[in-house]
Please model this.
Amino acid sequence: MSGYSAKQVLDQLSRPGEHPVLRGDLALVGLPGLVYTPASGLGLPAVAFGHGWLQPVTRYRALLRHLASWGIVAAAPGTQRGPLMSSRLLAGNLRTALDVCTGVRLGEGAISVDPERLAVAGHSMGGGAAVLAAADDSRVRAVVTLAASEVRPSALDAARRVTVPGLHLAGGEDRIAPPVGHAEAIAQAWTGPVQYRVLPKTSHLGFAEGRHWSELVLDGKGERAAQRLARAMLTAFLLRVLKGEKKWNALLEEDVKGAPLAYQRAALTLR
Model:
């Protein structure tokens, strides 16, 4: 893969990986939500994903399945679904999901997670929750947000305490959490290596899959182009940071059509 362009890496990472995928239910271990894993593998990386405001975790199934197909365990708590969503509590649920990934032998005993290869990610308020979780959990090695929203407690304040690499993707047409006061501000407050990209034509719900009644009260709808870019960028970032795979560097180092690099401090690929 070395020497390939960003477009070539994007094309490859936007397609499913080589691993057969298993789907599980976190409720079996006491936490509502979904978990997707490769069919087998020991010492795997894992990511806990936080859903957006009013969004069911099923709106991220394709993303979770995609990550698992590339060898990454992906867990998404299905808590805090109401209008009075607490990002603080969701952040705690993300940390609990990481506990499950590292403490429970998944599948039929053929899957284990390396506690040194953990990440958190999220969409909308779930992105803000992921920042909160990273600030308070030294196990987290990487953070990704999609159309992140500022939350309470403040994700901006928490970002100043996060020293691990962060990747933040924002929607240029986001009228719920406009990038300038949310994702961009979080990226600029970040202490560790950070990269911020704007998808110019993407709305707040562009990263969420399918249709949902919340589109009646929130701006935008699911957009396949945004989801394709997010799948590839998130996969490249996690494989690079958690597993040290350098062959995906071009996608993280160059401008990408539909997701130009808007801000960066310290190259993500140096760590």
Summary: Residues 16 and 234 are 13 Å apart (CA to CA). The longest helix spans residues 224-243. The radius of gyration is 16 Å.
